[in-house]
Amino acid sequence: MNIPASLVQLIDELAKLPGIGKKTAKRLAFSLLLRQEQDALDLAESIVRARKTIRNCICCFGFSDLEICDICADPRRDHEVICVVEDPRNIFTIENSHVFTGVYHVLQGAISPLQGITPDTLKIAELQNRIEQSPIQELVISTNPTLEGEATAHYLMDLFKDSVPVITRIARGMPAGGDLEFADSNTLARAFEGRSPFKTEIDV
User: Fold this and answer.
1) What is the distance of C-alpha 184 from the center of its chain?
2) pTM for the structure as a whole
3) Which residues contact 97 (CB under 8 A, 6 or more apart)?
4) DSSP assignment of 61-79, as one string?
5) Across residues 134-158, what is the average pLDDT?
6) Dihedral (CA of 164, 189, 203, 104) sign
7) Which domain holds residue 44?
8) Which CATH number does the domain housing residue 99 bear?
9) What is the pLDDT of residues 90-132, one digit of tens each?
């Protein structure tokens, strides 16, 4: 028996999601078909609604359904401390650890010349503008501990070393080559609590 074309398409689309292989995609597809029709429609509607309403905050470039996200708009946050991350997802990971009370800036990636990602293609100019317009006391560089993340961290250090009083890097609680998205709360808590002044290799 041939699988219906619409089911094949559903499986193919699910398999495009990160961490979802063909077998898992097939199980998910059959699960959706076996559930109540309204459940599947609710899922489809929520995906469409999220795609239509979720945007990047005009201040930090994290995900938001408003022009300015709740974190940037919260007067209780420490707006003199900015945590720099690569990806909007990293904000949710850090927030779940409850160890950071400042605000964020999402670069939308990391420097990787081989992939054509240069500083001017990231939200670095926007970060520079924020620093020039506000009295920033600390920049917490929380790029991933990968080659690209480290290169980005060093670039930011060189760029802002004369304009920000304190530049720190999250501690080595994060495994080399890891990703903030997959870090557990305890690891992130240790990484933030143990952050230290960021120095280049030449400074050491």
Assistant:
1) 15
2) 0.78
3) 185, 188, 189, 192
4) --EESSSS-HHHH-TTSEE
5) 93
6) negative
7) 5-53
8) 3.40.1360.10
9) 999 899 888 899 999 999 999 999 899 999 999 999 999 999 9
